[in-house]
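We include this case.
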Amino acid sequence: MSFLKKNKSSIIFFTFLLLALFGLFRFTGAFVKGYNIVEDHALVDTNNEIDSVSITGAYEKMMELDVSGFKRFRPVWAMYVVGMVALLSVDLLLISLFVFLIFVFTSFFLYRFCVNIGFSTLQAAAFCNPDHIGTSNSTLDSTN
């Protein structure tokens, strides 16, 4: 059996997901929103910290601020933000595209997981899209 026949529903779903989410991100202005002092100051601070100290120093400072100032412990989130800023700097368009791709692939792999454990194609598609609405989307939203 060829690859295309075997994975036809996954390819169709991925294409639909890519187009629908691109339209959503484009329509809402997420790609061209520009700098927002409330949300994006941490990216600039992290970039300055990476430039002046190092990646590990920026990570340590972010963790220290998180634990002492905000009373949170988010080591994976801190690694995600520091790594993203180290790779992409503070180019907000690239960061938006990066977050968009994470959103698309997270939805697609959740869909594939649901299909693999026995959900129908329709059930899997219906489950993975609303999963990113609400507080579960806060990680994607806070870095974009």
Notes: The chain has eight helices and no strands.
